[in-house]
Write a structure and sequence with these properties.
The chain is an alpha/beta fold. The chain contains ten helices and 16 strands. The strands form five sheets. The chain has a six-stranded parallel sheet, with helices on both faces. A three-stranded antiparallel sheet has the order 7-10-11. It binds 1,4-dihydronicotinamide adenine dinucleotide and pyruvic acid (PYR). The site of pyruvic acid has 7 residues, from loops. InterPro entries: L-lactate/malate_DH, L-lactate_DH, L-lactate_DH_AS, Lactate/malate_DH_C, Lactate/malate_DH_N, Lactate_DH/Glyco_Ohase_4_C, NAD(P)-bd_dom_sf.
Length: 313
């Protein structure tokens, strides 16, 4: 398995933007773009290649599945995106069919790869990908709530007028409408939010927290109403995850992966803080939660489990 070699399957808004961020990152020596629309993959590969001399050497090209031989990281961004008014769950049946059509072809040539699922509904597709592929759970990773957590950090940073990198807080659960903010352990560089609010001269109240949470939860709906799709934030989130894996950083990111016997369900994929390294997920952490937060996480897990049960998975 070659972690210098990465493939992006599906080169629509998300796949192409992720490919661009990856190509400019210097992380990979080879980046292969695949799409059922071969002309689209070729166009995106050519466009990105023309900027490579401004970054670091990286062979960016369109390809077929046989080009994925030995590929270390395979990113799945193929499939339908939400139209205004649609939820991520509404995409399930369309994207399940697409995922199934891709998996066998990938595994035939890159059986030891790490799969990074981006397509929605990401938690359910990650679960499906792990079950269908038979890959170890640690090697089938969904982007989970990494993007939502970045949105939370950004909005808290804006509210408190502080660098969002110094905001430590997580969105966990479904990447979708049942996700939750873990306010009980949120802090700014070790200072509790109420204390930091006092210093910053800002109100700290449940309504302020609710407002920030709702803006995070509904961010994709607002962006899709405005411009039809979201892709820059997720493109940068994909790079952050890829970097943690390729460089073996052991970074803690709230990715999604199969967990067993937690949060009231036998088995599920959910966005939870996880240590990411060269082998994929090394540990899924049990974040300390308040009683209310645990109940909401259990309810998010139950929602996803019910959908999987309906699919008989
Ligand atoms: N996990 C996350 O945080 C996020 C996930 N997404 C999801 O990413 C997915 C892609 O979104 P967009 O790029 O905006 O959609 P898009 O419609 O622009 O692109 C999808 C691409 O997939 C290709 N495709 C379809 N079937 C294929 C197959 N069998 N093999 C290879 N390629 C195939 C299409 O030709 C198209 O180029 C959606 O499911 C969207 O909801 C989007 C943003 C954030
Ligand atoms: C579309 C989507 O899943 C997002 O931007 O969060």
């Amino acid at each position: 398995m070659n972690l210098q070699k990465c493939a992006v399957i599906g080169t629509g808004f998300v796949g192409a933007t992720a490919a661009y961020t990856l190509a400019t990152s210097g992380l990979f020596s080879e980046l292969i773009l695949l799409d059922v629309n071969r002309a689209k993959a070729e166009g995106e590969a050519a466009d990105i290649s023309h900027g490579v001399s401004f970054a670091q050497p990286c062979a960016v090209h369109a390809g077929d599945y046989q080009d994925l031989k030995d590929c270390g990281l395979v990113i799945l961004a193929a499939g339908a995106n939400q139209k205004p008014g649609e939820t991520r769950i509404d995409l399930l049946h369309r994207n399940e069919v697409i995922l199934k059509s891709i998996l066998d072809a990938v595994l035939a040539v890159a059986p030891d790869c790490i799969l990074l699922v981006v397509s929605n509904p990401v938690d359910l597709l990650t679960y499906l990908a792990q079950k269908l592929s038979g890959l170890p759970a640690c090697r089938v990773i969904g982007t989970g709530t990494v993007l939502d957590t970045a949105r939370l950090k950004y909005l808290v940073g804006q509210y408190l007028q502080v660098d969002s990198r110094n905001v430590h807080a997580f969105i966990i659960g479904e990447h979708g409408d049942s996700e939750l903010a873990v306010w009980s352990s949120a802090n700014v560089s070790g200072m509790d939010l109420p204390d930091y609010c006092r210093i910053a001269g800002k109100e700290f109240s449940q309504s302020v927290l609710d407002d920030i949470y709702q803006n995070v939860r509904d961010a994709a709906y607002h962006i899709i109403e405005g411009k039809g799709a979201t892709y820059y934030g997720i493109g940068m989130a994909v790079l952050r995850i890829a970097r943690a894996i390729v460089r073996g950083e052991r970074s803690v990111l709230p990715v999604s992966s199969v967990i067993q016997g937690r949060y009231g369900v036998d088995e599920i994929c959910l966005g939870l803080p996880s240590v990411l390294g060269k082998n994929g997920i090394e540990t899924v952490l049990d974040l300390p939660l308040s009683y209310e937060e645990r109940k909401r996480l259990e309810s998010s897990a139950a929602k996803l489990r019910t959908l999987l049960d309906q699919m008989k998975i």
